[in-house]
Design brief:
By secondary structure, the protein is mainly β. The protein contains four helices and 28 strands.
Length: 379
């Protein structure tokens, strides 16, 4: 069936009218997008972000009119906008397991504005590991004192932990960290610390992955001073205990060391340090059948059980016979004089004994050669 020409012409006109309504007018195009491009570090949508990672926003071909990073509670993260307005950098560490959101506005070199928007999430540790450091702030210690960092959980990535530790000294010192267990790393110099050295320790552990999903709980720092040099030199064959201060002998006390013909009672060879001082010490040794023995002016130098202490009851042996159970006996007057002069960390060097101390009893840092010590580093 043929349609009349009039009907066909009417249909064609309707099509042309519809097409004319939807088409761009001649010579026009879509508006160009803003040239300002905002980039984030870490990228928008990132997860498992370290709370100490660099956090920043940058603009290409523009600058920020406003920019803000907020946590899930709406609290703004402290930060700094660069002088040219192109970079914003976070100025504080973030929290664990938190969501953070970007907001604000950038304006491009074309005058057009672009939104600042995006978010990311920080890592949620399986556990956080607490650490402590010794010596503590403002302590004054002897020239053999090690720096000790102890963790409340075993550390799997020891290399990462060790890289986070730094030691600065007012006098140049060669030293090294050594892992004495999965939970303790110590630093000691190759030789004794130079006298009167100031030492600063920083442990940047917060946000640090320690392995196995564990992260450091907090950063640590300490600053302490090495005192004068004072060394006990104990040659058991001489029955004397000599004290050398700043290179000069200042005392030679009549002493009795461990019984020589009983290896269980020797005062073993080795380099130790004063670990603790107590005006009164109650001593027990069930193996040798004594308990609750009260001695004064006791300076412990080994966790094996050795002290320098008063034993006035053994006065007849002092300077003549070695008959103790491993301690260094002095008269009451001499023990007090030494006690008053000693600092925690002063070295005690024992020589001339029939036995040597194995490196098992804390603090044994100086019982290891320098090579053995370096081998215990994770780096």
């Amino acid at each position: 069936m043929r349609l009349p020409w009039r009907v066909l012409l009417g249909a064609l006109a309707a099509v042309l009218l519809i097409s004319g309504c939807s088409a761009q007018p001649p010579g026009q195009s879509e508006p160009a997008p803003p040239v300002a491009a905002v980039h984030f570090e870490p990228g928008a949508g990132a997860g498992e972000v370290s709370p100490t990672a660099p956090i920043k926003a940058t603009v290409e071909q523009g600058r920020f009119e406003s920019v803000q990073l907020t946590n899930g509670d709406g609290k703004a993260v402290a930060g700094q906008l660069s002088a040219d307005g192109r970079t914003w950098q976070a100025g504080e560490a973030l929290g664990y397991g938190k969501d953070y959101t970007w907001s604000g506005q950038a304006v491009g070199t074309d005058g057009k504005k672009a939104p600042v928007q995006g978010s990311f999430r920080t890592v949620q540790p399986k556990k956080t590991v607490r650490a402590t450091v010794n010596p503590t702030d403002h302590a004054q210690v002897g020239v053999a004192m090690p720096i000790s960092v102890k963790f409340d959980e075993p550390v799997k990535d020891k290399a990462a932990a060790e890289r986070a530790l730094s030691v600065q000294t007012s006098t140049p010192v060669e030293g090294s960290w050594a892992w004495l267990s999965d939970k303790q790393v110590d630093y000691r110099p190759k030789e004794y610390w130079p006298a009167n050295t100031h030492v600063t320790v920083d442990a940047e552990l917060y946000g640090l992955a320690l392995g196995g999903g564990a992260y450091g709980q907090a950063d640590l720092s300490t600053g302490f001073d090495i005192g004068r040099s004072q060394i006990v030199k104990g040659d058991v064959r001489t029955h004397r205990m000599v004290v050398v201060r700043d290179g000069e002998q200042v005392a030679s006390y009549a002493a009795s060391y461990g019984k020589e013909d009983d290896p269980g009672r020797n005062t073993p060879n080795g380099t130790y340090m004063i670990m603790a001082k107590h005006p009164v010490e109650i001593m027990d040794n069930p193996k040798y059948h004594y308990r609750n023995v009260r001695k004064t002016w006791a300076a412990r130098f080994s966790n094996h059980g050795e002290f320098i202490h008063e034993n006035q009851d053994n006065a007849a042996a002092l300077g003549k016979v070695n008959n103790t159970h491993g301690c260094i006996n002095l008269s009451a007057a001499d023990a007090k004089a030494y006690f008053d002069s000693a600092l925690i960390g002063d070295p005690v060097e024992i020589t001339g004994s029939a036995t040597s101390m194995p490196p098992h009893f804390a603090v044994y840092d100086w019982l290891l050669s320098w090579g053995q010590w370096q081998d215990k580093s994770a780096l």
